[in-house]
Design brief:
- The structure is a single chain.
- This protein has a four-stranded antiparallel beta sheet with strand order 1-2-3-4, with no helix packed on it.
- It contains no helices and seven strands.
- Helix content is 0%, strand content 47%.
- By secondary structure, the chain is mainly beta.
- The radius of gyration is 13 Å and the shape is globular.
- β6 and β7 form a beta hairpin.
Length: 98
């Protein structure tokens, strides 16, 4: 529910990442070229990120089907290329937004 709607497709490729005592749910809402979007939702409970509300919504990434990889002490985000024809990888940085 909430901003993602109540259909199944805005919740594709879901995964949870633990980071500094909290949990972050990533789920893709749109794969369309030029409209790719993945939502990121925060929670203290890795099994509950809210139902029909957006209280834990952290923001959106302009990527589809992302994954997080930890390697040699750094975190990387891998996601589909904008044209859906391959994978791109970038170092992931975390920052607190007040």
């Amino acid at each position: 529910g909430g901003q993602a709607g109540d259909r199944w497709w805005p919740f594709e490729c879901p995964f949870v990442v633990p980071y500094q005592g909290a949990f972050y749910l990533f789920h893709t809402q749109n794969y369309a070229v030029g409209k790719q979007q993945t939502s990121v939702v925060w929670s203290e409970n890795p099994a509950y990120f809210g139902v029909d509300e957006d209280g834990g919504l952290v923001g959106h990434l302009e990527v589809a089907a992302p994954g997080i990889v930890a390697f040699q002490g750094k975190m990387y985000l891998a996601a589909l290329q904008p044209e859906l024809d391959g994978i791109r990888v970038a170092e992931l940085g975390w920052r607190r937004v007040e």
